[in-house]
Give the backbone structure.
Amino acid sequence: MTDQAIVCTDGACLGNPIPGGYAAVIARAGEEGILLGRERTTMDNKMAMTAAIKELEAVPLDLPIVIHSDSQYVINRRMCHTPSGR
């Protein structure tokens, strides 16, 4: 099997706009990494997309990625405006 990164992302807040946070778990070759962040004033969709963008920035460009997300906003949007160009 080709080396790849498996990523699970999530972002949330308790209303819009209020404090919220995001997380991404990246699994590759039997190892895991966790990315976490928060913002004082944000919205659900922004945190969900931020989690996906942060993981794209953390994974090498030449490595295939499988992204798991419960956010239809993330799943249905193209990630073409990230700095990595993915």
The radius of gyration is 13 Å.
